Amino acid sequence: MSESHPHDATTHFGYREVRIAEKQKLVGEVFSSVAGKYDVMNDLMSFGVHRLWKRHFVATSGIRRGDRVLDLAGGTGDIAALLLPRVGDKGEIVVADINAEMLRVGRDRLLDRGLLQGLRWAQVNAEALPFPDASFDAVTIAFGLRNVTDKDKALHEMQRVLKPGGRALILEFSRVNQDWLKPLYDFHSFQVLPRIGKLVAHDEGSYRYLAESIRKHPDQQTLKAMMEVAGFRNVQVRNLSAGIVAIHRGYKIQ
Fold first, then answer.
1. Phi/psi at 151 (5° precision)
2. pLDDT by residue, tens only, the chain of 254 residues
3. I want to staple 124 with a disulfide (CB 3.0 to 4.6 A). Which of 96, 112, 196, 253 is the partner?
């Protein structure tokens, strides 16, 4: 487990250096600001492709009927809605997010769709999960790990709450592996996205942070190594869309 940090230790918030104690508050402000427009903005940012990434993530998850799943950073409810038919009436999904506003928006959306049975909602910090050891068959986190201050702590916690044989599944923006695509991707991230954020969500700064946070997130091999240090075995990486996003999968052996 990671050691506690000195009071004046710093970390990155996008391209800014901030005190570790301050980052959680700043990230919270970002997601409280964008919660209401989050899905619309995801469609505009990814041209709707985020929906295909999420469907593929769930379709290849190996999650089965009767499984108990913890969906971290799941406030939008997107992953939970896709997982529900897989776990069936014997399974359960705990949708967890650190941000109360994101949870409220996601819960209301799924209630509007009549999705209630088999779902629990919990406001939690991924770095200190309030669940017993070995209590889930799978842990999923989609587009959330890069916003966690201490990713090593979160990975250790994910491993701790998994049952032996359980799996952690991480869908996250990663490192583009095609040289021709990099300048186009950078232009879209740093010139187009903040302008869309300003027009649609009236929040240019939050979307600039989100673009920066992707660049600061560990690349495919670095995250794979971090998962192995946290105790995961048979860690596999699958790139989607030329590495714009990647799926990391790791297992708890014992």
1. -65, -35
2. 444 455 557 666 555 665 666 666 655 555 555 555 666 666 766 777 989 999 999 999 999 999 999 999 998 899 999 999 999 999 999 999 998 888 998 999 999 999 989 999 999 999 999 999 999 999 999 999 988 989 999 999 999 999 999 999 999 999 999 999 889 988 887 888 778 777 776 767 777 777 788 888 899 999 999 999 999 999 999 999 999 999 999 999 97
3. 96
Crossing angle of helices 20-34 and 100-112, rounded to 10° = 30
How far apart (Å, rounded) are the C-alpha atoms in residues 147 and 28?
9
Domains of the chain: 10-178+206-251 (3.40.50.150)
The answer to whether 124 and 97 have CB atoms below 8 angstroms apart is yes
166 Cβ neighbours under 8 A, 6+ residues apart: 134, 136, 137, 138, 139, 251, 252
Q: 3-state class of 95 per DSSP?
A: strand
Sheet strands (E) in 98-151: 119-123, 136-142
Q: Say if CB 142 and CB 171 are below 8 A apart.
A: yes
